[in-house]
Amino acid sequence: MLALALLAAACTSGGDDGPSPAPTGSTNAQLSAQMATTDLYVGAPQRVGVGLILADGRLISYGSVDMRFSFVGTADAPQQPQPGPAATGVYLPTPGTSNSGASPAITQPSQARGIYEAENVTFDQAGFWQVDVIAGVQGAGSMRSSTTFPVGAQPQLPAPGQPALKTENLTIHSKGVPLAAIDSRAADGGTIPDPDLHEWTIAQALKEHRPIVVDFATPVYCTSQFCGPVTDEVDALAKQYADRAVFIHVEIWHDFQKQEINQAAADWLYRNGDLTEPWLYLIGSDGTIQDRWSVLFRKQELEAALKTLPPMKG
Q1: Does pTM surpass 0.85?
Q2: CA–CA separation, 154 vs 44, rounded Å?
Q3: Are 33 and 59 in contact (CB under 8 A)?
Q4: Three-state secondary structure along 29-59?
Q5: What are phi and psi of 292, to 5 degrees?
């Protein structure tokens, strides 16, 4: 399984694109850009997230950075970078961590942890792309790093505009399955900590034409440390907007020790031997995927979408 490990390695096939220019100022630690978003494809505006990590394990957090994208060819035909779109990447914190800085700063992972996300980035060619990230860091001056990542001709995972899969995910009503297969956090205490996220199957909610928010995540075994906070944030929204949509958490692992993936997670996220998570989906009452978020999401974006929905009946 490809884990979205911001503090360890990128989840895409790309890596750091050679040595970065030495930063000015008080730090000599080399900056590494790590791709956080997967399943990018051509022809549609998408969110692109990048984590910025120093060689000593500290992070760049807060504020915004410049992101410049270039097409660098295909596996069979690499080429010199061909300039593409440019965008501003705005800091997106992990829920529950600090977002108090007005401009990029060097932080410890225990202090702040997140990614920089650019919105409405459209790629016009399938193949490999490079993103150059330039950050004006407090006390360090201008820092820069690059990473490459794949862009497909089509999305590999369910994407906006497509019909949602009629999945029979595990719920608190499922019989003969370990509780940890419903929510990995039940492995320790023997109870489901967020039962309101495990009442419905996706298939049943689609059958009843209800809007759905689906969180695919493994709170205990997620190496990026994003899954638990994201699931908690979804649970908080579920309590606030229970009349607007059905909220569902799909646990990734049926049995982590045996490396068995839940079928529902595999149906949505497992492709070509790889699985990335967490993912968050918004599905309309007509069964069409309206939006999706990779790794992290902005609460206000999902809230705005939920507020436009009419109250559900029943």
Answers
A1: yes
A2: 10
A3: no
A4: CCEEEEECCCCCEECCCEEEEEEEEECCCCE
A5: -150, 150
Asked if pLDDT for residue 143 goes beyond 90, the answer is yes
**Alpha-carbon torsion (20, 25, 27, 33), positive or negative:** negative
Half-sphere exposure of 57 (CA within 13 A, CB side): 4
Answer whether residue 287 shows pLDDT above 80. Answer: yes
Q: Could you give the CA distance from residue 42 to residue 47 in angstroms, rounded to a whole number?
A: 12
DSSP E strand boundaries for the chain: 31-35, 46-54, 59-61, 64-73, 78-93, 105-107, 114-121, 127-137, 141-151, 212-216, 246-250, 253-255, 260-261, 270-271, 274-275, 279-283, 289-294
Cβ partners under 8 Å of residue 40, min gap 6: 46, 48, 123, 129, 149, 150, 151, 152
By the 8 A CB rule, do 180 and 221 touch?
A: no
2-6, 57-61, 63-67, 249-253: least confidently modelled range: 2-6
The dihedral built from the CA positions of residue 158, 230, 276 and 262, taken in this order, carries a sign that is negative
Torsion angles phi and psi, residue 286, rounded to 5:
-85, 0
Distance CA 200, CA 249 (A): 9
Per residue in 226-258, pLDDT (tens digit) is 888 899 999 999 999 999 999 999 999 999 999
Say which residue the tokens 């990447």 belong to.
89
- Lowest average pLDDT, out of 57-61, 206-210, 260-264, 272-276, goes to 272-276
Contact 67, 130 (CB under 8 A): no
Domains, in order of start, for the chain? 31-151 (2.60.40), 179-307 (3.40.30.10)
